[in-house]
Amino acid sequence: LSPGAKMGCFTFIKVMMILFNLAIFLSGGTLLGVGIWVKVDGESFLKIFGSLSSSVLQVVNVSYLLIVIGAILLVIGFLGCYGAQKESKCLLIMFFSVVLIIFIAEVAAAVVALVFTGLAETLLTGLVTPILKEKYGVNDTFTHIWNVTMTKVHCCGLNNYTDFDNSYFFETHGSYPRQCFGVSPPLAHPHLHGCLLQGCFKQILEEIRTNAGVAGGVAAGIAALEISAMAVSMYLYCRLDEK
């Protein structure tokens, strides 16, 4: 290619890099803002998006997850956008390094999820079950999230109904949550007749397996974007030596 064509190609890729990372930066800022909103005023958030609250994210603290993801996207977007605009080799290599670390972490997490599903279930049980026993029936937001989850997913507790044994709710009401009995209301004395015995974790795993094709396609798309971003940043980094 002629020097003019090379310069035109470089400029085009640089502009695309800036626009792409500007979108990432704005997305990160939005997620960070929503995460802070959920943390400060979770009840109003649930009232607005209650119908969407049956996802797997209900098992974890949504606000912290959004804040972390938003902060990461803000950093990536800033490094990529500002690094390309200023043609800074330092910022571009930092962008490349951060995206590479995230890519490796995602691959490692996928391998662990596939190979050590049982271990993940054990760890999740050890973390979530004590919180469920302690906070269900005490914290209104936490209780509402679990009620919606158990109703939508048709499940009871994380593993099964026994997660509520010796819990604050069971000791206070002498019964399992109403959602654990499906359409039948709980009896005065806790009885398993009509109770939903399966736990939410297994139900969510089953939903994930059912939609594995969609999840795999999304994961592959994200991986392709990350690889493309790394390739573009490295191209700009190398071309700066020739300018």
TrEMBL record:
Give the subcellular location.
Lysosome membrane; Membrane
Record-linked InterPro entries: Tetraspanin/Peripherin, Tetraspanin_animals, Tetraspanin_CS, Tetraspanin_EC2_sf
Which regions span the lipid bilayer? 12-38, 58-79, 91-116, 214-238
Q: Which SUPFAM superfamilies match?
A: Tetraspanin
Membrane topology field: Multi-pass membrane protein
The UniProt keyword set, sorted, is: Glycoprotein, Lysosome, Membrane, Transmembrane, Transmembrane helix
The UniProt entry, under Pfam families, shows: Tetraspanin
Q: Output this protein's name.
A: Tetraspanin
**Organism annotation:** Platysteira castanea
